[in-house]
Amino acid sequence: MNTLSVADMQNLQQELHDAYLDDWGPLEPETAPACLLWTVGELGEVIDIIKKEGVDAVLSDPETHARFAEEVSDVLMHLTDALLCLKVTPDEISESFRAKQKRNLERWK
Predict the structure, then answer these.
(1) How confident is the model at residue 109 (pLDDT cuts 50, 70, 90)?
(2) Structure confidence at residue 108 (pLDDT)
(3) Looking at residue 86, what is its pLDDT?
(4) Where are the alpha helices (DSSP H) in 1-109?
(5) Residues sharing a CB contact under 8 Å with residue 105, sequence separation 6 or more, in sequence order
(6) Residue 52 burial (C-beta neighbours within 10 Å; 0-12, 13-18, 19+)
(7) What is the mean pLDDT of residues 71-78?
(8) Interaxial angle between packed helices 32-53 and 62-85, expressed in degrees from 0 to 180 and rounded to the nearest 10
């Protein structure tokens, strides 16, 4: 299976939104706060799995592991929607991620 890039995730989310445009409306800057609220809600579902099932179940039980991965995917989808709304490009995310990681490495030396 191929690993998804940020660009892949944005393209897939745009495709999904295009398919449901009449129901969901466009990905516009004004929709970003709602996308972020959905992100937080989905993150709560990720946390619930850990809280109710435990880390060991996520690691050892295939069903729990799959549900965890699915909920994390929901988080990434809604976060990707917010990026699309605010026109944040995959290159910007890549550059920011690398720069932040470098700062974090240097911070703890």
Answers:
(1) confident
(2) 74
(3) 98
(4) 6-19, 21-24, 32-53, 55-60, 62-85, 90-107
(5) none
(6) exposed
(7) 98
(8) 160
Q: Does residue 46 sit in helix, strand or coil?
A: helix
d(CA 42, CA 79): 10
Q: How far does CA 55 lie from the centroid of its chain?
A: 20
What does the block give as tokens for 48? 């619930």
Distances (CA, A) of 50 to 5, 58, 59, 62, 87: 26, 7, 10, 14, 33
How far is residue 99's CA from residue 105's CA, in Å, rounded to a whole number? 10
Q: What is the largest CA-CA distance in the chain?
A: 52
Quick: pLDDT tens for 25-71.
999 999 999 999 999 999 999 999 999 999 999 999 999 999 999 99
Token readout for 94 is: 């890549």
Rounded to an integer, what is the distance from CA 59 to the centroid of its chain? 21
